[in-house]
Amino acid sequence: MKKLIKLEREDFDALHDVILEALDYPSNELTDEVILDYWNNLPEYLQDDAVHWGTNDSVVRDNIYVWLKENVK
Hints:
- The radius of gyration is 11 Å and the shape is globular.
- It has 73 residues and is an all-alpha fold.
- The chain has one domain (9-71).
- It contains 4 helices and no strands.
- Helices cover 67% and strands 0% of the residues.
- The model has no long low-confidence stretch (mean pLDDT 92).
């Protein structure tokens, strides 16, 4: 079972940018609820890295980007 992780505003902002770039998501439709849904569907190891290093960490952002590109249609 996944841990419940509380995201801060800066986490939403970082994930917003990664999702926009990776999925070419329409900016006006990328709400906090949508971002949270993507977050909740990330593998636990990516969430753990984001919690440990921060969502603004370049490696974390790159890994999330790659996962989104490879796993979200």
